[in-house]
Automatic annotation (TrEMBL), chain B:
Recorded GO MF terms: ATP binding; ATP hydrolysis activity
Family according to the record: Belongs to the ABC transporter superfamily.
SMART domains xref list: AAA
SUPFAM superfamilies: P-loop containing nucleoside triphosphate hydrolases
GO cellular component: plasma membrane
Name under which the protein is recorded: ABC transporter ATP-binding protein
InterPro entries named among the record's database cross-references: AAA+_ATPase (IPR003593), ABC_Ni/Peptide_Import (IPR050388), ABC_transporter-like_ATP-bd (IPR003439), P-loop_NTPase (IPR027417)
Membrane topology: Peripheral membrane protein
Subcellular location: Cell inner membrane
Keywords noted in UniProt: ATP-binding, Cell membrane, Membrane, Nucleotide-binding, Transport
From TrEMBL, chain C:
Organism of this sequence: Pseudoroseicyclus tamaricis
A GO biological-process term: transmembrane transport
Transmembrane segment boundaries: 46-68, 109-136, 156-182, 228-253, 273-296
Protein name, entry field: ABC transporter permease
Limits of the ABC transmembrane type-1 domain: 107-296
GO cellular component, one term: plasma membrane
Length: 267, 275, 308
């Protein structure tokens, strides 16, 4: 497809004999925000890691702005595509200061003007300059995730891969980080590929959503379709119902049918 | 049976002086389902652990009263506490992967827990274990009993954990973020299971979570904690009538499928909440 | 008075500068981190005893020519096997040489061997372990099999065989000890690397586009260094004992060099009649190895990343 920032066709990823992703296809336009929703083991994070070059055992075609990608990623790829990890407690080097962590991509890509860029990056994610020389363990979870976002954006990429960026955070912090991601996308015209298990969170940030189950994309819908209930696959219907039930509890406080949700078990 | 706390405080001694993590909270829980909701660092888990006196070593606990069915938890001997822990009060933790013994089959772990509290032969215990697995709605309990923790999915592991806690037939169940590590659909199933079991057996249930809407579904009332204090108590169906700014903030900062917003509300923390 | 208060003020503000929770520069952050470690280490009495003893040992070795009361190799047969006295603080040995002076010079020999072994062993063990662990595959298999071969021999036996094949002496002893000391370090570094390699913060560095060499050198290796330092500090007591053991067996330092093990060997016949003569170097060996052991334990508490 032309004009697509990221185009994935028939992506298959295998772990030994287990086929974790069984032929996933989707395309993301430039400046679009696309979500992959599914439960653990559905293969959503596996796709993200393969796209980021962290897993090389895949088959299929992946094109970045029309150019096919090989198994090995070069440095130029990482200038254009960056990733934010799920766990802000695990994704920052424990023995490096924030300064050092943010400097790393700048050094790798040969940027000049490192001091000024670090200060600007901190400001952009609303972290006080006083945080600059602290260590990750001196920061809260939300502050760490802001650092991780700053690190991803400091080399000025066009595409951001977001691996459940808020699922390890408190809900009030989640709101702040989601707002930050919304603002940054608008300010920089970024393309997002976001993975998550919370339908409401992913739909908040993404215009189109692919629902995954057992290594396959079972349905791709727009956020508007999802809100209006124009969905077909039973898995999508179930996820949507759960999400709506919880939403109802917040506001109306009425009896909802989650208490009658199926209580059957996995085999 | 009731758990009573009056002016419960938990303090940590740090190199920079004492830090109060729980600051004088009071509550009473009978044979009912009560949710304790708050963000990380609000002191909700410490509150639950105080009841079983399972606090980390550096923590100091004080209370005007802290009792479990009339037994003074602060003064009770270690032996008396062991009779409460596991036997009269069960504790379900967030991640079954960390709380189950990796080298023992699921069935044997439940059987061990059953035998410790009730005695009986190995065979009887194993039968009881399979029966308990059936009670937590596992379809093929005999097969699951043979499996080791790494062979269980997250939801299945949590069911095994619940079965283990039910073995001694406790009167009170504390569930500390029992579903935070699980997927949305499994989350609802496990919550529903815990709620049903509590109702059927007439157990008291204390449900600790950061997820206010989820908890309110399954509890009779909800205590909202902020910075070591209970800031609001709500009946489950009345979340919409929350008065405290923090509770309102918690609810309004959630993204919603039915009411999309360009930007989410961000909680403005008032200094007076800390008073 | 004003001087005193000014000095006190300066030390208070330096402390504040070090403990500032939001440091203003890279340098301040690094110093602050080091100072916090030091405060933690200082609270450990046993470790401090170890550190002080080690520092005293090093000072004794460096300043031996100044501290010694006699020439360590000056023979005085008329005054052999003398008990401790004002003239000879620790007595004399079978050739009438001053024991106190020989112990001081012996510290030079022993610590010299320790330094030589550590300088040889630490980089080799670290690099082999980290590279094997990070790169994996056939390189890992190859490096680890080589390591296994060296680990398969008992330490002292391998060292003895090696020294016997060369010629006995300090250099051979150092090489022999080094040969037996690097494999555990490589194993340790590899094990650390395996856990670090899969962590998200290393994945995050990979995603920045950093090269393999850069990831190993700048991100993985610094995390392995603390545990290697701890392991070496604990191993040094073993190195001291092996060096003394080789000396005792005549395979290490040769007489008349004042090496502690050799000193025991040449005077062991007097253990019943003049017990202090072989005992004093023995006590020196004991104190030195114990001091390094205590120091290593203390360092582990401060440096081990798992304790955070």
């Amino acid at each position: 497809m032309a004009g697509m920032m990221l185009d994935v066709e028939d992506l298959r990823i295998r772990f030994g004999t287990l086929e974790a992703v069984r032929g996933a296809s989707f395309a993301i336009a430039e400046g679009e925000s696309f979500g992959l929703v599914g439960e653990s083991g559905s293969g959503k994070s596996t796709i993200l890691r393969a796209l980021a070059g962290l897993n090389r055992d895949w088959d299929g075609t992946v094109r970045l702005a029309g150019e096919p990608l090989g198994r090995l990623r070069d440095r130029a790829f990482f200038r254009r595509v960056q990733m934010v990890f799920q766990d802000p407690y695990g994704s920052l080097h424990p023995r490096q200061t924030i300064d050092r962590i943010l400097a790393e991509p700048l050094i790798v890509h040969g940027f000049g003007d490192i001091d000024a860029r670090i200060c600007r990056a901190l400001e952009e994610v609303s972290l006080p300059a006083a945080m600059r020389f602290r260590y990750p363990h001196q920061l809260s979870g939300g502050q760490r995730q802001r650092v991780a976002i700053a690190r991803a954006l400091i080399s000025e990429p066009e595409v951001l891969l977001l691996d459940e960026p808020t699922s390890a955070l408190d809900v009030s912090v989640q709101a702040e980080v989601l707002n930050l991601l919304t603002d940054l996308r608008r300010a920089r015209g970024l393309t997002y590929l976001m993975v998550g298990h919370n339908l409401a969170v992913v739909t908040h940030l993404c215009e189109r959503i692919a629902v995954m189950s057992h290594g396959e994309i079972v349905e791709t819908v727009t956020a508007e379709d999802l809100r209006q209930g124009r969905v077909q696959h039973p898995h999508t219907v179930e996820l949507r119902a759960l999400s709506l039930d919880l939403a109802e509890a917040q506001g109306q406080g009425g009896e909802s049918d989650l208490s009658q949700a199926r209580t059957g078990t996995a085999p | 049976m009731s758990v009573v706390a009056r002016n419960l405080c938990v303090t940590f001694d740090t190199p920079h002086g004492p830090v109060e993590a729980v600051r004088g909270i009071s509550f009473q829980i009978g044979r009912e389902k009560v949710g304790i909701v708050g963000e990380s660092g609000s002191g909700k888990s410490l509150t639950a652990r105080s009841i079983l006196r399972l606090l980390p070593g550096q923590a100091r606990m004080t209370a005007d009263e802290l009792s479990f069915d009339g037994i003074d938890v602060a003064q009770a001997s270690e032996r008396a506490m062991r009779r409460i822990r596991g036997k009269r009060a069960g504790l379900i933790l967030q991640d079954p992967k960390h709380s189950l013994n990796p080298v023992m089959s699921a069935g044997r772990q439940i059987a061990e827990s059953w035998r410790v509290h009730r005695g009986g032969s190995r065979r009887e215990a194993m039968e009881a274990a399979v029966d308990l697995l059936a009670q937590v709605q596992i379809r093929n309990p005999a097969q699951v009993a043979e499996r080791y923790p790494h062979e269980l999915s997250g939801g299945m592991g949590q069911r095994v954990m619940i079965a283990m806690m039910l073995a001694p037939d406790p009167e009170f169940l504390i569930a500390d973020e029992p579903t935070s590590a699980l997927d949305a659909t499994v989350q609802a199933e496990i919550m529903r299971l815990i709620e049903e079991l509590a109702s059927e057996r007439g157990m008291g249930l204390m449900l600790i979570s950061h997820d206010l809407p989820l908890v309110s579904h399954f509890c009779d009332r909800v205590l909202v904690m902020y910075a070591g204090q209970i800031v609001e108590e709500l009946k489950a169906g009345e979340l919409g009538r929350a008065r405290h700014g923090y509770t309102q903030g918690l609810l309004s900062c959630l993204p919603s499928l039915s009411h999309p917003r360009e930007r989410l509300n961000v909680m403005q923390r008032e200094a007076e909440w800390l008073a | 008075m004003t001087d005193v208060s000014r000095a006190a003020h300066a030390s208070v503000s330096r402390r504040q500068w070090l403990l500032d929770p939001s440091p203003g520069s890279r340098r301040q952050a690094a110093w602050g981190n080091a100072y916090r470690r030091w405060l933690q280490f200082r609270a450990n009495t046993l470790a401090m005893i170890g550190l002080v003893t080690v520092v005293l040992l090093i000072a004794a070795a460096i300043f031996a020519p100044l501290l010694a009361t006699h020439d360590p190799s000056a023979i005085a047969l008329e005054n052999r096997l003398a008990p401790p006295s004002a003239a000879h603080w620790l007595g004399t040995d079978d050739l009438g040489r001053d024991l106190y002076s020989r112990i001081l010079y012996g510290a030079q020999v022993t610590l010299g061997m320790v330094v030589a072994v550590v300088v040889l062993v630490a980089p080799v063990g670290l690099v082999i372990g980290v590279v094997a662990g990070y790169v994996g595959g056939w390189l890992d298999t190859l490096l680890m099999r080589v390591t296994d071969v060296f680990m398969a021999f008992p330490k002292l036996v391998l060292a003895l065989a090696f020294v016997a094949a060369l010629q006995p002496g300090v250099t051979s002893a150092v090489i022999a000890i080094a040969l037996t000391a690097w494999p555990p370090l490589a194993r340790l570094a590899r094990a650390e690397t395996l856990t670090i390699r899969e962590s998200d913060f290393i994945n995050a560095v990979r995603v920045t586009g950093a090269s393999k060499g850069r990831i190993i050198m700048r991100h993985v290796m610094p995390l392995c260094v603390p545990s290697i330092i701890v392991r070496i500090a604990l191993d040094i007591s073993g190195i001291i004992l092996t060096a003394a053991g080789l000396g005792f067996l005549g395979m290490g330092a040769q007489p008349p060099m004042p090496e502690w093990g050799t000193m025991i060997a040449t005077t062991s016949g007097f253990i019943l009649s003049q017990w202090w003569v072989p005992t004093i170097p023995g006590v020196a060996i004991l104190l030195a190895s114990l001091a390094f052991n205590l120091l290593g334990d203390g360092l582990r508490d401060v440096l081990d990343p798992r304790q955070e």
